[in-house]
UniProtKB/TrEMBL annotation:
Residues 125-152 form a coiled coil. The lineage of its organism: Bacteria, Pseudomonadati, Pseudomonadota, Alphaproteobacteria, Parvularculales. SMART domains: HATPase_c, HWE_HK. It comes from Parvularcula dongshanensis. It catalyses: ATP + protein L-histidine = ADP + protein N-phospho-L-histidine. This is histidine kinase.
Amino acid sequence: MPSPLPGDLSQKTLASFPLAMVLADPNQDDCPIVYVNSAFVRDTGYSANAVVGRNCRFLQGPGTRESDRSKIRAAIEGGEEVSVDILNYRADGTPFLNRLLITPLRDPCGKVTYFLGVQTRRQTSEDHEERARELDERLRELQHRVKNHLAMILAMIRLEAAEQRQAPEFAETISRRVEAISLLYDEFATRTGGEENERIHPGAYLSRIASAVHEIDGRPEVRLNVEIAKASIAIDTAARLGLYLSEVLTNAFRHAFGERDEGEVRIELTCHENTAELHVLDDGCGTPDGAWPRADSLGGRIVLSLVERIGGDVSVQPRWPDQERPGTRVTLRFET
């Protein structure tokens, strides 16, 4: 059975994840890998083409303890989460101690659809014990966030699949959404531990999302301008905000300008005492009152769902009400 995920997903959208990641499909024979990211390629020396379609046990070797193999096997068979330090081998035969975290991703009915594996090479020197403990704690935190955020993306993908979208457009949509979370982990991975690590300044993150969407869905002659005020928002809110911005920008690039090739899309984040407003503005043909976002369209349902998760409210108005080309202003208000 072919993988339900696009073959170029890891190359296009997971390359910047800070930790090695694997997705395996337990609904296929022998639970094969369906994609890996570039960090996995870097850490193991195996190319993506060499591992997709194979079970992860190929990383094991003569020094791998049977007890570790059994622990992983039991967790997979039981659909449970597991953490284990296991001796693995690179493509050139070099052994390394791998801190492996495996967690099941489930559909709304509770069925396991994928197993997510996040791995990092363990420090073994006593001189690095304190640093190793710090990395372990951050790894557990990051793995938990990866699981939750990918589960949110997979729910969105299921909505897309139900609409039977064309394969190339479907692949681009998945790429764009996972890219948004990937960029967030870039920001997260550079931070030190502590309570402040629960929040980020979203300027660079939202700017990079805007650039990524412009590259995937934008038109060359449509200018993109970003102006982000300094703010501090929770990591989980940032994840949802990134997905929201990705959806709204894509709608603007695809529908705002009609047959026109040129135009402008502008993103502004303004902050008040405990609230913020994210504006997406264009100088296009305008959006009829009440036409978008609506619950009877797929894109509208996704945007409204993300707004609800953020705990905000969204409004859509003309940018210049009295002009021939009124443009559109989409405003999301939320608490920081």
